[in-house]
Design brief:
By secondary structure, the chain is mainly alpha-helical. It contains four helices and three strands, in the order αααβββα. It has one domain. The termini are far apart.
Length: about 160
């Protein structure tokens, strides 16, 4: 699973760069039809690129932790990524899990509890959520502006 997460991180980074380029192109007014919602569409793409880039900043460390935790061998229990905080807690770890939404690496305890290690920076999930919401809002605004312009334009024009 760790290699898959690292591959997804790399693919996400490439997609974020492509989205940022498309958004910048739309903001500068290059290519396509000149619709009134074009600036908002460009902002939506740039915000989506930012959300994806921030999300990948959390997914990469989780992938590395999953690779490390699944390694096995001598000194593999408890997994190295779970060895955070007080030793009284992490010596009882029985399992681990990588989470995607929100991005996290969790260590499970025998009593049913769990805790997250500190590999994902605390700002990643809130920033990715805020940027994704901004992208959605800008996309909705672009659609509304284009629809309003289409209503005002005569059908025969």
């Amino acid at each position: 699973m760790g290699l898959l997460l690292l591959f997804l991180s790399l693919a996400g980074f490439v997609a974020a760069v492509a989205l940022a380029a498309a958004g910048t192109s739309a903001l500068l007014g290059r290519g396509g039809k000149p619709l009134p919602g074009r600036p908002w569409r460009g902002l939506a793409r740039v915000a989506a690129a930012g959300a994806l880039a921030v999300y990948v900043c959390g997914l990469g460390p989780v992938g590395l932790d999953a690779l490390d935790a699944g390694d096995g061998g001598t000194d593999s229990a408890p997994p190295h990524p779970c060895r955070t905080g007080p030793q009284e807690r992490w010596i009882h770890v029985v399992d681990w899990e990588a989470g995607f939404v929100p991005v996290r690496f969790e260590c499970h305890l025998p009593d049913g509890g769990s805790y997250r290690n500190d590999s994902v920076p605390g700002w990643v999930n809130p920033a990715a959520t805020a940027l994704a919401l901004a992208a959605a809002a800008c996309g909705i605004a672009a659609g509304a502006m284009d629809e309003r312009a289409a209503r005002r334009t005569p059908a025969g024009a």
